[in-house]
Structures are given as structure tokens and as C-alpha cells.
Amino acid sequence: MKILILGGGNMGLTYAQSFLRSHIVTPDNLMVLCRTAEQAASLSASYEGRFFTDAAACVPVADLAILAVKPQDAPALFEQIRSFVSSDQVWLSIMAGVRTATIARALGVRKVARAMPNLPAQIGAGVTAFTATEEVTRIELVMVQNLLSTTGKTLYVEQEALLDAATAISGSGPAYVYFFMEAMIETAQQMGFSAAEAELLVAQTFIGALDLYHKANLSCKEWIRKVASKGGTTEAALRVFEQTQLRHHIYAGLAAAWKRAEELGEIL
Length: 268
Description:
By secondary structure, the chain is of the alpha/beta class. The protein is built from twelve helices and eight strands. It has an eight-stranded mixed beta sheet with strand order 3-2-1-4-5-6-7-8, with helices on both faces.
């Protein structure tokens, strides 16, 4: 199978390296279409694979092509490659907000899959929600899932609208975690810890809590009850969270992200 990645940015290279590490594709059958000759030369010196700037040399021979450019760059890319695509090819998009119907119409293709990865995909710890048009066969869908699984967990959804929700939850999710961590680190420093000590306490707390969550079949509510003894310190903090309606604000933030994902889909 010949795989073409259109875009030599962070996510495009993340997938390229993951595919090679997983032995899903050989370097000879992995192609990357770059924006400039300088970028192609630079990447060729650092990474395995074949790097191109001429769409005519790589698009027609690809079995599966991955659209990995910024959404705002999509129209120019579509214009560049449209005359070289074929109906047998499978097109997988990781562009946020660009819908399968938009891609199918712009390129004149039928087999389109769309995925929403998140930042931890760069270290193989990501989670990716994905969907596909009806023309993508079951075998091709399994192939797409196998490719996406090289960067972490995957979740197939039948309704494309759920990708906007996944964008709000898992796509943007790492930033929410870092936001909460930052607040805890800053508070720890205000309490007297050094920056390094604060980071250690907070980072290991998140790592340990998640490891514990995965190793026992308990809900978040059950874990909270295990930590929060009656009249204790945790209960005091949780009471403030409830009084200040922190949960409501989290709901509102996620809803805002979801709405913006839908808006971007309409614009793009």
C-alpha cells in the first residue's frame, strides 16, 4: 500500500513516523507532499520516506492520502491536487472542521474519512474519533482505523456531527488539563513550594490519579468518595468548587468549544 501525506507539519510527520515504527508501510511506499523544495530537502535529511513538491509525481500513485494541512490552507491544496486524484483512492482528513462533503465535492472523490486526533498522538498516547462516508468499504475502514491506532486509541462514530463534539472534548481536552495543572502549580508556589517542587507534586498527582483510574473499575464519583473523607481537606475544597459552580463553568466551556467547532465546519 502506498500512503501519501499531504503536509509536512507536526501532525503529518507524527503519522509518518508512527506508520514506519508500526511497519504498516515501508519508507519507499510512504510519500509526503511538501509546500516548498526547501522543506522537502530539510525533511528528507531528517526523516525516512519520499518527499515531493510536485503533486503530479505522488498523488496519482497513492492508495490512501492523508490531508494534514491547516484548514485555511485546504482550498489552495484542493486546487493544486484536484486534477490528479482518482475515484479508487481513500482520502483521510485530519483537518479540524473540514467536513467530508466539502472534501468530496472539492476533489470529486467518494471515499472520504475524517478524523479528530489530539496532541498526545505525538507520543502514541492520543485518542482519535473518526468517521467515513458510506462509499468507504469495511476493509478500507479497518485500514484507516489501523493507521490511526498507531498514535493511540480510536473511536469510530457513525454521525459526523459527533466529530465536532470530540473536538470540544478530546481535541481541545489536553489544554483543559494543562489549564487546571497550571492553576494548581501556581497555587502550590503561593503556598511556599519552589517551582520545581510544585511541578513535581502536581504532575505526579495527575499521573498517579489516571493510573489508578485505569487499574480499577470505579467511576470518578467513587474515586472522589475514597479521597474525600467527611470533614476533611478534600471535602473543604470540593465544597468551594460546588459553591462557585465550577462544574457549571466546565460545562459552559465545553459547550462553547463545541459550538465553535460547528461554526468552523460551516465556514470551511
